[in-house]
Amino acid sequence: MNTQDLYVKRAEELMDGIDKGVFSDVANPPQDYVYGHLTALFYVARALEHGDKLYEQFYDRMISFGRYHVKSKMEKGEKVKIAFLSISAAEWASDSIYRMLDRDERLECYVVVCPLMDRTRDSRRRTEEETWSFFEQNGYDIRRIYDAKHDVCQGWETVGGLPDIVIHSTPWYHSLPEPFWIDNFPLRILNCYIPYGVYVADNAERDYARKYVYNKEFVNLQWKLYADSELNLTGYQQYELLHGKNVSYCGYVKMDFFQKNRSYTEDELRNIWKFPRESGCEKPKRLIIAPHHSLEETAVVKYATFEKNAWFWLYLAQKYQDQISFIFKPHPNLRWKACESHFFHSPEEYEAYLRQWEALPNARVVEEGNYLDIFATSDGMIMDSASFLGEYMYVDKPLLFLTREEQAFNALGERLVSSYYHAKGEDYTGIEQFIKHVILKGEDNMAGRRRATFGEILDYTGKNGCPAADFIVKDILKLAEG
């Protein structure tokens, strides 16, 4: 059965259930219905006059099942199971939320590491292993569902059964193993979405953000969704079928990291950056190169300029090896997109390119893992990525954004990109001028504009009076109050 036929079937089942009154008892959600039935209604409702009102009525009823179930367990003294689904250490944004909820004795929190089923087997295995290692080293309760040897995945039954609340880190749930698709969850599960980045991108047709961010079916299934900015909250209010009723503005939780002043010892700096042993850590500048993955012609959102400057970065790293330490921080997807687009003809060629970076005395490659310490200790960044436009604003450092004609942004992205330096991806002179004058000489003429933009649109603690993690945890725990 194809997807369209499945949705038609589920829509018919939903209407049949309404006629039979199976949704009337909030304490007993019907076992034969899943969130996929609400997804089916989402697609039907968009084509109906006043379909948003119809969808909202059913949404409210579906969410009431989960709310009742969780509150009932708390009242009985039973532990509420909260599963965090993670696909990548680099995209993990919920550390402080996990830690705070895990301290609550009423809750059982754990992370399920989900392999990416739409990747090659080698890419799937590599990313899952790196992600698993990250969580293991940082003391999380982690549950494994992937058998790399046989390239097979298990379901919820292998990690302790179905949870009560699922906290999602990606809206692209069809990349996960099928048991972990939100469409297949029973109605007693509540879903929260904490985005893995700052939403800034759009496509040339100006409909990507509307269709795939603000009004994707996934966001209309969430009990709670936490927006990174007021501009993106407005986007949900304008375009979501639910008109933003399930969305709260709290700020991007990963950026709570920068709310504290941090200092680093020389040993800590050497663990992050590569310096010649005879060199002190303070003298060389520290520069991040962060290319996006959207190389293929069929990409919906086109940001990448890597095919124009991949080898230029190595030239610059060699030229400035006595003055600058580099970290090459590619988007995790660049590994397979660079091969898919035939810029590199094999994963081995991509690996050979990375080895050229690692062979330099002043350069490191960081693909996965936590990059916040890299941001905090850097002096600047050159990139053509999306979310980093927002994230790097929190460290108040200069950024050179590499442009190409096809790039487009939502309202937040337009404000952010106008506050940074620009050069075309193939403008080698412009790129090097940024390095010479802004990074090495400190002539940061855009600093005032960046700070003004930050205060106006990204300073969530100033507007909410608390870190994003505190806001989210308090919001989730309101369940105990009814």
How would you explain this protein's 3D organization?
The protein has 482 residues and is an alpha/beta fold. It has helices at residues 3-20, 35-45, 51-75, 95-102, 121-137, 208-214, 230-239, 266-272, 306-319, 334-340, 347-358, 372-377, 388-391, 411-417, 428-440, 447-457, 460-464, 468-477, and strands at residues 80-86, 107-113, 142-144, 146-147, 152-153, 165-168, 190-193, 201-202, 224-227, 247-249, 285-290, 324-328, 363-365, 380-383, 399-403, 408-409, 421-424. The protein is globular and about 75 Å long. Helices cover 40% and strands 14% of the residues. It folds into 2 domains: 3-256 and 466-481, Rossmann fold (3-Layer(aba) Sandwich), CATH 3.40.50; 261-460, Glycogen Phosphorylase B (Rossmann fold). It has a 7-stranded parallel sheet with strand order 3-2-1-6-7-9-10, sandwiched between helices. Strands 13-12-11-14-15-17 form a 6-stranded parallel sheet. A two-stranded antiparallel sheet has the order 4-5.
Please tell me the overall pLDDT: 93
The proportion of strand residues reads: 5-15%
Number of helices: 18
Q: What structural class is derived from the secondary structure elements? A: alpha/beta
Tally of domains? 2
The CATH architecture name of the largest domain reads 3-Layer(aba) Sandwich
CATH topology of the largest domain: Rossmann fold
For the largest beta-sheet, the strand count, sense and barrel status come to: 7 strands, parallel
Strand order of the largest sheet: 3-2-1-6-7-9-10
Query: What is the C-level CATH assignment of the largest domain?
Result: Alpha Beta
Gap from first CA to last CA: 40 Å
Residue stretches low in confidence (pLDDT < 50, at least 5 long) are: none
What's the Cα radius of gyration? 23 Å
Count of β-strands: 17
The helix fraction, in percent, is: 25-40%
- Shape by Cα distribution: globular
